User: Fold these one by one.
Assistant:
Number 1:
Amino acid sequence: MSKITFDLDVMRTFVTGIELGSFAKAADRLGRSTSAVSAQLKKLEDQVGSPILRKSGRGMLPTAAGETLLAYSRRLLELNDEAAAAVRGVDLEGWIRLGIPEDFGERILTDVLGRFARAHPRVRIEARIARNATLLDLITSGQLDLALTWNSDITTPHSEHLCDFAMHWIGAAYPQLQASYSGDEPLPLVAFEAPCLMRSCATSALDRANIPWRLSFTSPSLSGIWAAVAAGLGVTVRTAVGLPNHLRIIDNPTLPALPILGLSLHRLEAEPAVAVQRLREIIVEALMGEDMGQQLRAA
């Protein structure tokens, strides 16, 4: 039996179409005609020997075989892109100062920094996890080269909006704690110490809905927030990014709707060094990857 050799360009089209939710958009993104994209997908299905896409409303979703192929395609493309970056940047040297919020700490530090370090071992990265206001202060004062932050009223000269996330009411995953959210008493709220963007969104939404609330727990760290919510001390407002398994998004019609929260990447310089630009590219790729991509599309 002959072995199958997949075409990475075809796999890239497949992955891009799934992540964008449209193969017409994928054609535009990749600079191909829609007929060329259709031919690539047909070639991929012929190689697999079974359908990889199924109709869902006006769009297309992967079949079971397509889901399996999608996971492998992402891994192969990531390795290919990492190899290409390593070859191009074999002599890349320097020092990058990166700032990220706690929500993305685990994802960024393990995935992005690992990929970057393997491709560019001679570039040193100094990573800092901090609150939103602190990160904005550091990038504006020239103490960071890149900073990932939630959108706020504060802007910087060289920033780009990456994507939007839905904010949610989040509570402990235990039914016996749901009585705390019934509305009979002020809603116990777990939040960061002020100033906090999501805390302000939560209290403003509750005030507009005329729902009484009280601060039951404040913390300077996200781990403290998660621990307090898990213990049943109250509810909090965050996005689904990094949500621990022992917590859940609350589906309670008595709680008010929350706004969408944008995510931006700030650069210290308009035209950053090659190493900084490469790290930026990897961060964007990670945010649009499998887990994050699902969250972004849901938002």
Note: Confidence is low (pLDDT under 50) at residues 290-299.
Number 2:
Amino acid sequence: MRQYSADLTPSWKKPQPVPEVPADPGLVVEEPGTGFCGAVIGCEAGTVTLEDRFGKHRVFPMEPRGFLLEGRVVTLVRPSSGPVRPTRTASGSVAVPGARARVARAGRIYVEGRHDAELVEKVWGDDLRVEGVVVEYLGGVDDLPSIVADFAPGPDARLGVLVDHLVPGSKEWRIAEAVTSEHALVVGHPYIDIWEAVKPSALGIDGWPRVPRGQDWKTGVCRALGWPSENTGAVWQAILARVGSYKDLEPELLGRVEELIDFVTA
């Protein structure tokens, strides 16, 4: 008698095949058992190391059907050799491969100085180009009322402004309060200068020195740290070169810039 072997399991009960995805550096996945979500930073000996947005690392086994990619179950496999295209921008956002810059919106983001604009461009530039947001810089906070009046913010032309050292009761705070409206948002960070928003660890220093009141802050910092105080522009370029991504910036700045981008693109 001929023997037959049949799988009588209903098709809807059988595990469905899932795609195999190379664990390339920068790929963002979630481990469903723990809910940990992060970017791949390493893959070896059957395990993958993920880093979340706050810099925390976790190691997980690369088991079949072990991860979620954009909400879908996948199996991570060892990455193939060859160049890897980054999947995260410097701001931590998901990169859009091949994305072209969008035509500029009527809305704008203003920052207080050239150094502020250069830092925003370095970390958020890819995001801003995709969204079509232009960043410009003020000559000073005293010019803000006239700039807002000339800009005439409206529903289709929102204006966001980032101000240095915005603390309650200060001159900057009073100006910001006067120009804030439904279509104009002014936010600030607590630092005297945008330099201070760069984490000391990114520069290999223990901390930003205190500068006595009445003394130029940049000059005082350079002198205290042994940097050339006669050319603060060159010092800033050296600082900026040490900023690789949002991880090198203080969260008080990160949150404010993200808030402005959300406001202008809403």
Note: Helices lie at 114-131, 144-151, 171-179, 200-203, 217-225, 232-241, 251-265.
Number 3:
Amino acid sequence: MFLFEAMPWYSVLMWFVVLGGLMLVNELARMSKWVSILLFLALPIVLTIAVWPNTAGEGSSVGTWFHWVKVYSALAGCLGFMALRYVKGWDKNKYVLMFPAIILAVNILEAVIRDFQVYRLNGIVDGVMMIGGPWNIMNGIAGLLNIITISGWMGIVVSKGRSKDMIWPDQLWFWIIAYDIWNFAYVYNCVSDHSFYAGAALLISCTIPAFFFKKGAWLQHRAQTLAIWMMFTMSFPMFVGESKFAVQSSHSETALWVVSALSLAANIAVFVYHVYKITKHKRNPLKVEVYTDLKAYKAIAEQN
């Protein structure tokens, strides 16, 4: 196959199990503050002390600086978003409202740095096959454009009702799709043999809820599914790389070129549109929302 080696039926079935499991646990956490505290505070403390030193140590495929930084930054996002959702008055504090944009930008930047780093790597590194090349630079640039086009955090609100979701109306479908393509390209470039699950399934697990379950809450969905996945894969690193369910990348340079080219093209398109909206309506993206005139924005704002 183009992106991956042959996928047996049981791996395809497991892909759907992973997708469904991530969405289910995300929904449970979304609906209950106490489930969230258990998942994103109590459980990581136990795993940090009792599990990860043994499963994610040096030599493991998840024993790199990136995996350790990623799991804690994802957890920091989850806890910060919970504080914004549940601590009275925080959703009205302009400095607190900057946190989602900052943690999102930091997470993207971590991956951009890793893409640039992998450009010079070839062969087995930390138990993962690396094929560095110009595609890493292309996708790193796409990631930087993705950061630049983050906008509208000052318009974040907390939805009414039981779930008290963190709603970001200015974070619309075109930015999310550009992010998804970029992030899949990053995973495919830098941990290619994990990308069947950590790329495709993980990204879809937060995009489906954002488009169909709770619109406007993409970043909340993303942080929670990412944290859940990172805790799982650091506890069971063999699953994505060496278990019977593992699906290996094709390691095709053509595939690497294609996914990174799509990522760069998508993020250039969003960047051009972003600049167009800013200049046309004379909006300062550091002070006001950019897409308030769009139907998709209005629909999210009206619902919340």
Note: The longest strand covers residues 122-125.
Number 4:
Amino acid sequence: MARKEPAADAANPGRLKQIALTYKMTRKADKKIGLVLAGVGIVVFGVLLAIGFWIGHPIYLGILGVLLAFLATAIVFGRRAERAAFGQMEGQPGAAAAVLDNIGRGWTTTPAVAMNRNQDVVHRAVGKAGIVLVAEGNPNRVKSLLAAEKKKMNRIVADVPVHDLLVGTGEGQVELKKLRTTMLKLPRVLSGPQVTVTNDRLRALGDLMSNMPLPKGPMPKGMRMPRGGNPRQR
């Protein structure tokens, strides 16, 4: 027990420092974050306290109001911090893959299942909504990548719906900060076992990144795909 207490004490400052750093980063993109959080906390606490006076239990409802105000503030802070982070990532290579990695349970994501020499990329996610192909890059160039991947999906899993999304700010595109919400709103048409079977079939295909001798870490700017495209085709 004596060893666990210092470890717990050391972890708390680390969490507080991380929260403070997240707040500073969020405030750079969201100047009103402080006012919003304060407003949410005051409104939630005020409503609960008013109800407490109305029913004759201001102390109990006041304590409950503090807890719920803290919870509501934490939820709002998390969402606005996530939105600010996505806003800073907008337009950067690999940003969509980062969003897919944090989409939540029930989804299996595979980054860079297709890529061309200009670093236009298609990522794949599989869930109860079926297969979702998420593309990022030049809208004109990436269409051929999407078409090729959809054709491949139809050959392997013809009975599974395939959706395609293009990340961007133009017409018909999905903003990075709305990508997760858009995917979660897709109708669920597959059961858990069907998702497992679909993943097993697609796993046999492998993916572009696992078959390429690329270094780990972020993709260097200006990197070009070798002529000939996918090395599996050589």
Note: The chain has two domains: 15-89, 95-211.
